[in-house]
Design the sequence.
């Protein structure tokens, strides 16, 4: 994180703003797993009025360069003091639609940075696909396990792959596998109750 030489006035205003901000409500539904989450609009909606009332502004910029999407988020105070956070992710070379991937990654980064910088909690967030950061693919045993779980829950494999942004189950990371396994187990438990 970067900051201006002094942040005393910004820190005071930010502390006051954070005491007034209420966490956003879940307003969007994941079409594959049917769970709800707070999207970027909801997160920013709970921040903007309180920030403005405390002399704070929030700016987010997106850049694409050298196969990466980069998001910079900055909180500024009327005094000229500021803090800034930047994050970037590599767009997969195997991407079939790099512009769409860029947009998705930028949206996720913007939402996570906003939550982080303003200490906002949008509750459990399982809408987003895990973004692959060069981690090894999952084992053949895990592929077989997921395949069986998709079959037993009568889940659409193509929809599942689309949610995780991969062409096949083997391309999932271990963290994606763990998340998918948990969600499919929950889906199976709900189906068993019917």
Sequence:
């Amino acid at each position: 994180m970067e900051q201006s030489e002094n942040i005393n006035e910004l820190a005071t205003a930010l502390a006051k703003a954070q005491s007034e901000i209420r966490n956003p409500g879940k307003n969007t539904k994941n079409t594959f797993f049917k769970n709800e989450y707070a999207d970027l609009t909801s997160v920013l909606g709970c921040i903007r009025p309180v920030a403005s009332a405390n002399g704070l502004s929030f700016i987010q910029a997106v850049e694409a360069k050298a196969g990466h999407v980069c998001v910079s988020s900055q909180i500024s105070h009327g005094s000229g003091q500021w803090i800034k956070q930047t994050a970037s992710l590599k767009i997969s070379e195997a991407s079939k639609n790099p512009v769409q991937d860029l947009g998705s990654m930028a949206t996720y980064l913007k939402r996570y940075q906003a939550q982080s910088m303003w200490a906002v909690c949008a509750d459990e967030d399982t809408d987003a696909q895990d973004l692959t950061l060069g981690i090894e693919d999952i084992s053949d045993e895990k592929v077989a396990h997921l395949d069986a779980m998709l079959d037993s829950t009568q889940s659409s494999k193509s929809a599942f792959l689309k949610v995780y942004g991969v062409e096949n189950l083997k391309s999932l990371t271990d963290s994606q596998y763990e998340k998918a396994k948990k969600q499919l187990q929950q889906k199976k438990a709900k189906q068993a109750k019917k």
